[in-house]
Write a structure and sequence with these properties.
The complex is a heterodimer of chains A (about 190) and B (about 210). Chain A has about 190 residues and is an alpha+beta fold. Chain A has a single domain, classed as Glutamine Phosphoribosylpyrophosphate, subunit 1, domain 1, CATH 3.60.20.10. In chain A, helix 3 packs antiparallel against helix 4. Chain A is globular, with a radius of gyration of 16 Å. Chain B starts with 9 loop residues before the first strand and ends in a 5-residue tail after the last strand. The radius of gyration of chain B is 16 Å and the shape is globular. In chain B, strand 8 and strand 9 form a beta hairpin. Chain B has about 210 residues and is an alpha+beta fold. Chain B has a single domain, classed as Aminohydrolase, N-terminal nucleophile (Ntn) domain (Glutamine Phosphoribosylpyrophosphate, subunit 1, domain 1). The chains are: A alpha+beta (about 190), B alpha+beta (about 210). Chains A and B meet through helix 2, strand 9 and helix 3 of A and strand 4 and helix 1 of B. Chain A: It comes from Rhodonia placenta. Chain A: It is found in: Cytoplasm; Nucleus. Chain A: Keywords: Cytoplasm, Nucleus, Proteasome. Chain A: It holds the Pfam family Proteasome.
C-alpha cells in the first residue's frame, strides 16, 4: 500500500513517500518517515513488507555510515546503489529474503550530477530519470512520462510531483493523505512541506 | 506467471562472413508495467567476445558482475584474453554450479575465435538457464520473444552476409519480432563484431 515517487531535475533529486503505516484495514500512524538519509548527499525511500523495510533500511544506513567512518569520505551514489542492490540480491537467495523496494536518490558532489536508482526486492537496479513504487506507479509514471523534464527547476519539479500526488488522491480508492518530501542537491539533504 | 518472463527482454545473435552480430531490446519491465527503456542486456567480455543476458533482471546484473570477476581472474592467470569457445564453457559451468537453484538467465554469446593461422572464425552459442550449450552455425535466440525471433530469423538470415548486411538483417529481425511481444521492445541495441572493430548502434523502436 506504500506509495513513493522520485524524480530528478537540474541539479537535484526529489524523493517523496506517503506517511501512513497501515495494518490490514486500519491506519496505525500517519506521520511515519519512510525516507532514510543515508549520507549527507544520499536519500533512500523504502517500502514493502512492514518490519523488513525498517530493518533493512537501518542495516543499509549503518553500513553506509561505517564506510564513511572507515574511509573518511562517503560512497558516491552509483557505488552506494550497487552495494544496496547486491545486499538485496544476496538476500533474495537466502532462507528469509527482505521484501523491500527502494528509490535511491543522491547528488554526486564530485561530478555535480543528480542520480536516481529504482531498486526492487529482487535486486533489480535501474538508473532512471524518475521512478515510483506501489500503486502510485500506475498513476504517477504516465504523468511523469508526460511532464518530467531533466532540466526543470526545483519549483517545476515540485509541481510535477504535486500532479502525481493529486492524481493518486483523485483516482486511488485507498489513497494516503500525507506525504513526506525530501530533496537532495549540492547543499545536501533537506525536507520540505509540499 | 513465469519468473523468466517477469522483466521481459530478448537477445539474438547471428553469424556473417568473417563477422558476428548480437542484438537485444532495451526494455525493463515489471510484468506489463514498463520501468526503463535503457536497460542493456549485452555486455562486452573482451574486445572480441560479447555476452547477452536475457531473463530475470536482478540476475542480469549479478551475472554480469560474476563474469567480470571470473574473466579478470582468467586473464591474470593465463596472461591472455579468453577465446569465445572457452568463454562458452565458462558460462556453462558458472550456470551449472547453481543446478538446483539456478540464475534465471538464458545467455547468448557472440565472438570471433582466433585460428592458429592468425585468422578469425565467427562463433555464436546460447545456453539454457542451467548451462546446456547450443552451438549454432546460423543464429541463436533467447528471451520472451524467442519464438517470434526464430520465425523472423529463419526467413531473413542467409549465409555469408557482409557486416553491413548482417547489421540490417539482425536489426530488422529483432525489431519486427519484438513488436509482436508485449514484454520486449522499447528500443534496441545492435553490436556488429569484425576482426578489427566492434560497432555498437542504438536503434529506435515502437514505444508501445
Amino acid at each position: 500500500m506504500d506509495i513513493s515517487f522520485a524524480l530528478t531535475g537540474k541539479g537535484y533529486v526529489i524523493v517523496a513517500a506517503d506517511t501512513t503505516a497501515a495494518r490490514s484495514i486500519v491506519k496505525m500512524k500517519t506521520d511515519e518517515d519512510k525516507i532514510k538519509v543515508l549520507s549527507p548527499h544520499l536519500l533512500m525511500a523504502f517500502s514493502g513488507e512492514p518490519g523488513d523495510t525498517l530493518q533493512f533500511a537501518e542495516y543499509v544506513e549503518r553500513n553506509i555510515r561505517l564506510y564513511q567512518i572507515r574511509n573518511t569520505y562517503a560512497l558516491r551514489p552509483p557505488s552506494a546503489a550497487s552495494w544496496i542492490r547486491r545486499s538485496l540480491a544476496d538476500s533474495l537467495r537466502s532462507r528469509r529474503p527482505y521484501a523491500v523496494n527502494l528509490l535511491i536518490g543522491g547528488y554526486d558532489t564530485s561530478t555535480s550530477t543528480p542520480h536516481l536508482y529504482w531498486v526492487d526486492y529482487l535486486g533489480t537496479l535501474s538508473p532512471v530519470p524518475f521512478g515510483a513504487h506501489g500503486y502510485g506507479s500506475y498513476f504517477g509514471l504516465s504523468l511523469l512520462d508526460r511532464y518530467h523534464d531533466p532540466e526543470a527547476t526545483l519549483e517545476e519539479g515540485l509541481d510535477t510531483l504535486r500532479r502525481c500526488i493529486d492524481e493518486v488522491s483523485k483516482r486511488l480508492v485507498v489513497s494516503p493523505g500525507k506525504y513526506k518530501v525530501k530533496i537532495v542537491d549540492k547543499d545536501g539533504v533537506r525536507e520540505i512541506e509540499l | 506467471m513465469s519468473i523468466m518472463e517477469y522483466n521481459g527482454g530478448s537477445v539474438i545473435a547471428m553469424v556473417g562472413k568473417d563477422c558476428v552480430a548480437i542484438a537485444s531490446d532495451l526494455r525493463l519491465g515489471n510484468q506489463a508495467l514498463g520501468i526503463a527503456s535503457d536497460f542493456e542486456k549485452i555486455f562486452p567480455m573482451t574486445d572480441r567476445v560479447y555476452l547477452g543476458l536475457p531473463g530475470l533482471a536482478t540476475d542480469v546484473t549479478t551475472l554480469r558482475e560474476q563474469f567480470r570477476y571470473r574473466l579478470n581472474m582468467y586473464t591474470i592467470k593465463e596472461e591472455r584474453e579468453i577465446e569465445p569457445e572457452t568463454f562458452a564453457h565458462l558460462v556453462s559451468s558458472t550456470l551449472y554450479e547453481r543446478r538446483f537453484g539456478p540464475y534465471f538467465i538464458e545467455p547468448v554469446m557472440a565472438g570471433l575465435q582466433r585460428l592458429p593461422n592468425g585468422g578469425y572464425k565467427p562463433f555464436i552459442a546460447a545456453t539454457d538457464l542451467i548451462g546446456c550449450i547450443n552451438f549454432a552455425k546460423d543464429f541463436v535466440v533467447a528471451g520472451t520473444a524467442s519464438s517470434k525471433l526464430f520465425g523472423v530469423a529463419e526467413g531473413l538470415w542467409e549465409p555469408d552476409l557482409e557486416p553491413e548486411d548482417l547489421f540490417e538483417t539482425i536489426a530488422q529481425t529483432l525489431l519486427n519480432a519484438v513488436d509482436r511481444d508485449a514484454y520486449s521492445g522499447w528500443g534496441a541495441v545492435v553490436h556488429v563484431i569484425t576482426k578489427d572493430k566492434a560497432i555498437k548502434r542504438v536503434l529506435k523502436g515502437r514505444m508501445d
